[in-house]
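Many introductory courses stop at the sequence. We go one step further.
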Amino acid sequence: MNRNFCTFIICFLTIVFYNCGGDDIVTINTEPSPYDIASASRGGVMFDKFWSTEAGFNQSDTNLAKFNSRPDFYKCNHCHGWDYLGRFGSYIGRAPNTDRPRVAGLNLYAVLQTRTPQHLFNAINSNENRRNIDFTFNTYIPEDPNDSAHKMPDYSSILTHSQIWDLVKFLKEGVLDVSELYNASYSGIYPTGSAGFYNIGKDGNSVNGSAYYTTQCSSCHGNDGKLILIEGMSAGEFTRTRPYQVHHKMRYGRIGSAMTGNSDISPAQLKDLYKALSDTAAFPNQQ
């Protein structure tokens, strides 16, 4: 066999551990990336309330009182909406006031389709043009779009890298296209626009949805959804009124309650459940 060819084969096989010269060790990274080991389900809880016990946040953190005093200024969903559409979706009429900031002026769902996990991590971990953690709201003017209170918080000083990766994992793998679950009509412009929702569940299967409800929901909410009130509404009424929010509660739970959610529920199952809950006879309003 040609000597040069033998030398090539030996060098090729050895390069897994060493280079051909034998002087330097070639490092092969077999460790999973931070994104790979991140939890989309934990990130989904964080999107709701990152400082909650359910999210695994340190309950001894000195900033908890600050977060709880102005929760809407720190929660992701209060700027981006449960439908991830910002002011172009269900929050088109959600004007700022002393207790909440302006709604984000971007369609987060659309943005997510064009960003890599690393891009998202860098954006969340940035402190550029962000609201400092020590910011006070004493001079906040809700009507002023340039007020610093409207800026995204500096999460780089609040969250660990692993927590940010959990959020990124949720944004890339847990965010749904809500147009698959219901139809919506929007009129006017932010912050005085209005939203309407119809065709809840779209082409879902109500029989399958009713079966899912019976096995997974009825023990707490009752057979007709009226046993537990959700902000004064029955389960059916809440779904028909706020379809943009129900999918998140179904998947990631309701903070501060016994409802833990099921992150494995598929979009098709959600659609079926929505379709079942759209039936006002089977799931009537509370009143």
